[in-house]
């Protein structure tokens, strides 16, 4: 039929469904979330008036410096993200467009997602505690650790929790602070054997870290390239794959001796 139409009419006929398709895409919700740098919290200090790490059954050190866990903030799970949001976020360094399921893997509604994130945080805290006490040879010694961090879910604070426990109990192992008095930030999951796992939104977390005063950022080794993207000026990346490796790197940085890995 189109072969019998004049060229202008044929183009018009072809354009109609294309325009309709683009209009639908422009206004239809898409399976993405828009993320940006979120809050950070010093695990060696307090969060909303409550100590993040409370330890009983062993002497606890007075620490200086900070160990700041980092987060991203994403659009609510029930917020519609449209084509204009995706295009806008794609060209901004302070936002990231992420698949909805990678940000909210725990279910389809807000309550399911909150329940999933809370469970992940609880499991992460348990793993972080066990990894730290195992590293310090304190398992079974009657040491009790309580971790409290309000309004944060998911497993990505695990590494920083473990480092905070180590710093409060042992510091750098020779009387000094693990932080060397610096503001250290980072991210990474951790398992009970002290292995550090990858997380999402690393490039946004580096921005949150630098915004809140960090000069060093601990990043899962597998995510070095992501962390280098749009890296804020004045922030040094240290890749880690284990709790021991993270402690060793911070001690080397503090004392100015030994090798400090870099991305």
TrEMBL record:
Residues 154-242 form the Lon proteolytic domain. Residues 1-28 form the signal peptide. Gene3D superfamilies: 3.30.230.10. The lineage of its organism: Bacteria, Bacillati, Actinomycetota, Actinomycetes, Kitasatosporales. It comes from the Bacteria. It holds the Pfam family Lon_C. Keywords: Signal. InterPro entries: Lon_proteolytic (IPR008269), Ribosomal_Su5_D2-typ_SF (IPR020568), Ribsml_uS5_D2-typ_fold_subgr (IPR014721). This is Lon proteolytic domain-containing protein.
